[in-house]
Specification:
The structure holds two protein chains of two kinds. Chain A is mainly α. Chain A has a single domain (about 1-215), classed as MetI-like (MetI-like fold), CATH 1.10.3720.10. In chain A, about 75% of the residues lie in helices and about 0% in strands. In chain A, helix 4 runs parallel beside helix 10 and helix 9 (about 140-155) runs antiparallel to helix 12 (about 190-215). By secondary structure, chain B is of the alpha/beta class. Chain B has two domains: about 35-115 and about 220-255, Periplasmic binding protein-like II (D-Maltodextrin-Binding Protein, domain 2, 3-Layer(aba) Sandwich), CATH 3.40.190.10; about 115-210, D-Maltodextrin-Binding Protein, domain 2 (3-Layer(aba) Sandwich), CATH 3.40.190.10. Chain B has ten helices and ten strands. Chain B has helices at about 5-25, 45-60, 70-80, 95-100, 150-160, 165-170, 180-185, 195-200, 235-245, 245-255; strands at about 35-40, 65-70, 85-90, 105-115, 115-120, 140-145, 170-175, 190-195, 205-210, 220-230. In chain B, the strands form two sheets. Chain B has a five-stranded mixed beta sheet. A five-stranded mixed beta sheet of chain B has the order 7-6-8-5-9, sandwiched between helices. In chain B, strand 1, helix 2 and strand 2 (about 65-70) form a beta-alpha-beta unit. Classes of the chains: A mainly alpha, B alpha/beta.
Chain lengths: ~220, ~260
């Protein structure tokens, strides 16, 4: 059960981070480089999960993605599958909670790079995608890497929204933070302690590794 | 592409591939003739239910019971929004009432009742009776927040009925949940507290449990189980619920301080 919780935590967080890294980078770039109506409103909306208590975010997810929900209901009727109480719910909850962090980091990273590089690339015949991949991304990479690290960290520690959407089912949807909660409410203080130490160790290891990756000059240029 | 981005992309791609492969490999396996039951259980009953499930599994190995433990309110939300739960075991009747008005309950039964007691830190002595918590030697007293926490609601109700709530009020500290009351007493942050008999028992050795609130001074504390309408394994769920009410089930609950279910 404990190994399962550890594996699920790492896998769900990795998957959530992968999704968030792509979607968050694009959204951040959009917010930094494009003027459009409702831009600041969109930004505020995307930041909601940072402000709301995670349980409330989880409640919204349940309302939208549950079997009777706006998205959940047609999905369930079409496929007979619902995200609630599945491992995918851990990914969704982690991704939603981490998304604003990635967007924020990406937006700042792109805003701090000079837009004229992109214009120059475009004027030399590069297409939009090519400019984005070969000019914008490399210029903003340090901020982007920081965003990815924050996102992973946030989703490893995710508790409130995950509890709501994924449930707390040992061996199925129970991540490491949920396993700690489960041990506490079951009165297994010793297990809770060991799990907490384990989560701390994993977090420190990830942060150390990530810190190395994000440091300037540590990789060749 | 700079070496860094190239390397970062390759690493990212590789980790996604590894994760995807692992997920596919670890997906739901072939189901034998076993039946899966998912039971949502209130946090206060989790320890007892672990034991019940173990016993039940030994007797009826064809049923695989998985527990989903959280605060009753969270479980209620999940169930209302279509989580695939077979059996819901709540720390109070109100959640089951609400599910019933929504037509989500197939069958419901009380599995245990409870009581609230006064408890004091180890090394001090509890009052002679429940209302004795008003004694001046208890300078700070912990109760659950009556507007949000059931254990606080019961405490207020009882202390009001006994006519000592007003005297006590300036000395009360409100806790966020029943476990926090126990925690504060254990650490000696308060001189006394009102909590469930089960929590006082769980903390025995670190706190001293005193007298219980007199019967009838507060609404009945009832733990109820409900087989849900959209359960795929309703028969097995009902069987497990009956097991909880059986002698074997009641014996496990009694050992953890729960009182018998009303017949």
């Amino acid at each position: 059960m404990i190994l399962h919780a550890l594996r699920l935590s790492l896998m769900a967080s990795a998957l959530a981070t992968a999704v968030v890294a792509i979607a968050g980078t694009l959204t951040g770039w959009l917010l930094a480089r494009r003027e459009f109506r409702g831009r600041e409103f969109l930004d505020a909306l995307l930041n909601l999960p940072l402000v709301l208590p995670p349980t409330v975010t989880g409640y919204y997810l349940l309302v939208v993605l549950g079997r009777g929900g706006l998205i959940g209901s047609p999905l369930y009727r079409a496929t007979g599958w619902s995200v609630t109480f599945t491992w995918a719910a851990c990914v969704v909850a982690g991704a939603v909670m981490a998304f604003p962090l990635m967007v924020r980091a990406a937006r700042v990273a792109f805003e701090e790079t000079d837009a004229r590089h992109e214009i120059a690339a475009a004027s030399l015949g590069r297409g939009w995608l090519s400019t984005f991949v070969f000019v914008s991304l490399p210029l903003a990479r340090r901020g982007l890497i920081a965003g990815v690290i924050l996102s992973f960290a946030r989703s490893v520690g995710e508790f409130g929204a995950t509890l709501m959407l994924a449930g707390n089912i040992p061996g199925r949807t129970q991540t490491l933070p949920l396993a700690i909660y489960d041990a506490v409410i079951s009165g297994q203080d010793r297990t809770a302690m060991w799990l907490a130490v384990m989560l701390t160790a994993v977090s420190v290891a990830v942060m150390l590794a990530a810190g190395r990756l994000g440091r300037p000059g540590s990789t060749s240029r | 592409m700079t070496p860094l981005t190239e390397c970062a992309f390759a690493t990212a791609f590789r980790s996604v591939a590894i994760v995807a492969a692992a997920v596919l490999a670890g997906g739901p396996g072939v189901r034998a003739e076993r039946e899966d039951l998912l039971v949502s259980v209130a946090a206060s009953l989790k320890g007892a239910m672990d034991e019940v499930v173990e016993r039940y599994g030994a007797l009826y190995p064809a049923t695989e019971v998985a527990l989903n433990a959280a605060a009753s309110g969270v479980l209620l939300s999940q169930t209302e929004h279509g989580a695939p739960v077979d059996l819901f075991i709540s720390a109070s009747s109100s959640e089951i009432d609400r599910l019933e008005t929504k037509g989500l309950v197939r069958a419901r039964q009380a599995i245990a009742s409870g009581e609230i007691v006064v408890a004091v830190p180890k090394g001090t002595s509890p009052p002679g009776n429940f209302a004795g918590v008003a004694d001046a030697r208890f300078g700070r007293i912990a109760v659950g927040n009556p507007s949000t926490v059931p254990v606080g609601r019961y405490a207020r109700e009882s202390l009001q009925a006994l006519g000592v709530w007003e005297i006590l009020e300036p000395r009360l500290v409100f806790a966020a949940d029943a476990r926090q009351v126990l925690d504060w007493i254990e650490r000696g942050e308060v001189d006394a507290g009102v909590l469930y008999g089960t929590d006082a028992l769980a903390g025995s050795g670190r706190v001293v449990a005193g007298p219980a609130a007199p019967a009838g001074s507060h609404a009945r504390i009832l733990y109820e189980g409900a087989v849900l309408e959209n359960s795929a394994g309703a028969r097995s769920a009902l069987h497990l619920l009956e097991f909880l009410r059986s002698e074997a089930g009641q014996e496990i609950l009694a050992r953890r301080g729960f009182l018998p279910a009303p017949r």
